[in-house]
Amino acid sequence: MIVIVDERELVTNGYNSLFDREGVACAGFRSGEFGEWVTSAPEEDLRSVRAFLIGDCNEGSISPRQLRDRSKAPVIALSEQNNLENTLKLFESGVDDVIRKPVHIREILARISAIRRRAQEDTGFTEIGAMRIFRDGRDPEIEGQPMPLPRRERRILEYLASNSGRRVTKTQVFNAIYGVFDEEVEENVVESHISKLRKKLRERLGHDPIDSKRFLGYRLIV
């Protein structure tokens, strides 16, 4: 089943008809109705959902991150605005993909299949203790709650997570974040970024999850 959320009944009815032609079940909701349904629906009903399509909704009424607490199905935004700022805003909200309208229904189905296929091969995140660290540019989560970080600090945390269990040197971190050929930035800037990152993580976790050894480098610990 495909679930589409849009304030316009004409839109949900239209998608219902198009998916039906492809032999795919579809259910349409307004955002208020959807919120009530998704919080109370039995788990077996949610397991039947193949994807959530989010169209024109009241701002802030749909939270993809909270939705994932109940379902692992892809969350895809259907956008009528053809501009980069809106696309980036939608990705930052936690959706798995942004599709610009108009779009053929078969393309939507192909994108859903691709996302689900990748999810089976790679969860897209690393969990270390209470931290969930994503590999797609999203802010990390601490005990399920997003922890906004500046871009450099987030990338450092992602790099440490990708090397979980191994120690990485300051040079390795610098090259991963700034690039091997960046000669305009001093390598010691890594220490400043990590210091700020450690302080923020310590405040949220109650302990410092970054273990550092002089001359040996850094690694994440539980």
From TrEMBL:
GO biological process, one term: regulation of DNA-templated transcription
InterPro entries: CheY-like_superfamily, OmpR/PhoB-type_DNA-bd, Sig_transdc_resp-reg_C-effctor, Sig_transdc_resp-reg_receiver, WalR-like, WH-like_DNA-bd_sf
One CC-aspect GO term: cytosol
Domain OmpR/PhoB-type: 123-222
SMART domains hit by this protein: Trans_reg_C
Coiled-coil spans in chain: none
Signal peptide: none
A Pfam family per the record: Response_reg
CDD domains: trans_reg_C
Keyword Transport among record annotations: no
Keywords, in A-Z order: DNA-binding, Transcription, Transcription regulation
One example GO MF annotation: transcription cis-regulatory region binding
DNA-binding region: 123-222
Residue span, Response regulatory domain: 1-116
Keyword presence, Transcription regulation: yes
PANTHER family, per the entry: REGULATOR OF RPOS, TRANSCRIPTIONAL REGULATORY PROTEIN TCTD
Protein name (database record): Response regulator transcription factor
Taxonomic source organism: Aminobacter anthyllidis
